[in-house]
Amino acid sequence: MACNCSAPEPKSPAPGFRKALWIALWVNLAMFLVEGIASIQSGSVSLMADAIDFFGDSANYILSLSVLTMGMLWRGRAAMIKGLTMATFGLVVWGRAIWTAQSGITPEALTMGAVGLLALTANVTVAVMLFRFRSGDSDMRSVWLCSRNDAISNVAVMAAAIGVFGTNSAWPDLIVAGIMGSLAVTAGISVVRHARQDIAEARAASVQASPASSSVSSR
Hints:
It contains 6 helices and no strands. The protein is mainly alpha-helical. Helix 2 runs antiparallel to helix 5.
């Protein structure tokens, strides 16, 4: 007996979305490793934030692939999880920036700039690939927002590297990390709102379909 836990006629994922997700997944996993190592070597909070973001995006892409063929209700729930994850990530970055500000560590600007440029190239490629899916359901929108935020964050990391080099201070890195955290929080809230709308619509469609199913069964 099938479980009626989603809308009876769910929207199909846009053509090419699955392939785009797989490409985005592998790009993000690779950059997580690169930026993770670089953040440790350079002491940069913004690089560390971006590395964690790459890891979070990879997990989100896996989640999207898992529910891609499911009903809108399950895809909305997946988007809800991703939105909450994005917002939590932003709060963690804020906390790390505050801790680093108190410790007085100055990051290495050259590593920040070089790795930031590499990450920017990767994220712009993924963002361009996912651009046409930005107006889809909440799950597709969450994927697009992840890629958009990553590209913006990489530009900010490079700007922070220039600021650190020019001032010999950690403050440019900390300011950028704070901005990245804010982007994650606001994007997470946006995805959660969209996901709640999708879930509500899916449940309403399921309720409307139930009387029709009962009527057919009684004949």
